[in-house]
Amino acid sequence: MLLFFTSQYFYCVEESFTLKAGWNLISIPLSSDSLSVNSFIRDQGLSGRVTKIWGYEEGWKKFDPIEDSTLDTLKKGSAYWFLLSSDAQLSMEMTLVSPVAFEVDTEGWHMVSFNQHTFLDLRNQVVSQARINGTSVPENIATVWEYGRTDGWQAFKSSSQSNPLSTVKPFYGYWFLFLSSEGSGIPPTLTISPMFESEFGNQVSFSLSGTHRLVEANSLPNHATGAFPNSGNPNSISAQDHSFQIPLNPSYSSTVQSVDLNVFGVALNGVSFEPNAAEWFNNDSNSGWNQDWMVANLGFDFNNAHVQPTGKYHYHGIPTSLVSSGIETRHSLLLGYAADGYPIYSRYGYADPNDSLSGIKELQSSYQLKSGTRSGGPGGPGGTYDGTYVEDYEYISNVGDLDECNGRTGLTPDSETALEYAYFFTNTFPVIPRCWRGIPDSTFINAGGGAGGPGGGGQPPPGGQPPPRR
Fold this sequence. Notes:
Number of domains: 2
Distance between the termini: 27 Å
Shape: globular
Largest sheet: 8 strands, mixed
């Protein structure tokens, strides 16, 4: 199964959703690919209220707080049955929540979620988007059922023009009945990519293939930008055609590799992170003095981004539109992936990297300004080390929380039980890391400007379990 991220991302600080006592067929909006069940229950204050959770992934899997469980993670693009002993309120951070497509290669009933944050017209924005080998096959979706919290079962039948169920709602999970079509069948794979209206023209897709995560993007952001051209930047934003391959299994190295003028990584919205600027002392790239973007007058907007002569919009610093306010109370959410495959987060992490219950702190870089003055004379700018140039800074081990690549090994919301290396952006130099800890994929080199859901055709569990489908 592949998960495809569609072009629309949604940015709001928080959304609430009420769960009722009894059974609830829901989806959990996730910014990362998965989240541990225990972490979700803990963070949402559901301890003592969740009696069971059922999910379907190549067979039924169950979470039970008392008995042995086979369901330990909640996945983006999956729907779940939650059984609660009393009403509860979910309060979800929606920053960087992205919808996904659903892909299926077997007939029958499937629990479906699109991880979306907006209401979708079921016939026109979902069913009409069903494809097999690029051919529209809306007739292969025979029936859709929703289990409402107050009004019970509601049905949509593709053969009927009058249906009580007409929309796909955020936070809801759905039963879809997929049929094979004469002469084609399932397989081949049927994919539903919901149609979204994109205000900013952003187009990006993430998919998994072999040992890599594949990214196709037009590099248009999914948020407002500053005015371009402007007095510091004469370029206009235009769509690009970029493809990146991100290793799924990064290889940690004791030797680091400089980013230079390459692309450090890519955000979940498909916009590149490019920390270094092609600005030099005396405009001489061989001078050894690279002017830092933070002091260069290059027309940056409020997202610490600007535009290359090619029209490519890209981030040099923390993109404020991708980071919500109030995040100092929780670990930063996933922002994207580095060229070597390691995940990227913003400023906040666990106080103890090995303990997700240790509290939250703003992580500090281990770079400081050098003392003294630069070399003057031919080839040198002279003057005090004041941060004008990248070379004004030096790495001092353990003076902060992060290593020379602004990363550390520890737990994250996307790796709650296994220690994982991850990069963090900081408010001070280097802001975005200037080196890689792993091996960057070649698709990121010289690229700078210097169906989700469970498979299987299952039925709800038998008697005493979630309400049966009609």
